[in-house]
Design goal:
Layout: H1 4-16, E1 20-22, H2 24-32, E2 38-41, H3 47-60, E3 63-66, H4 70-76, E4 84-87, H5 90-99, E5 105-106
Parallel strand pairs: 2-3
Antiparallel strand pairs: 1-4, 2-4, 3-5
Helix pairs in contact: 1-5, 2-3
Amino acid sequence: MVNEKKVLGTLGLAMKAGHIVSGEFMTEKAVREGRAELVIVAEDASANTKKKFSDSCRFHHAAYAEFGDKDRLGNAIGKEFRASLAITDKGFAALIGKNLKLEVTKYGENENI
């Protein structure tokens, strides 16, 4: 079972520490530049958005997860709704991945984050 409170709390800490980029454009840019350790897409995001980030993460070997809804993701990082965000720090990405259990897919490797 996913520990939702821990995931959302850790997202808030990562944001305060400056290790999160959010919004479709900035998330995609972080993935392309190789800075994204983990990309989280809201479960209520469009199928097109999910496919776009899933494919991009697979190509650029970044971890990918679907979690929460747009409002919760946005609130967790102190913004309005967000459909996507990227964690750019390995430590925060590992902690969030651990709390998401096996729902994180690390592309390019045969292991979970």
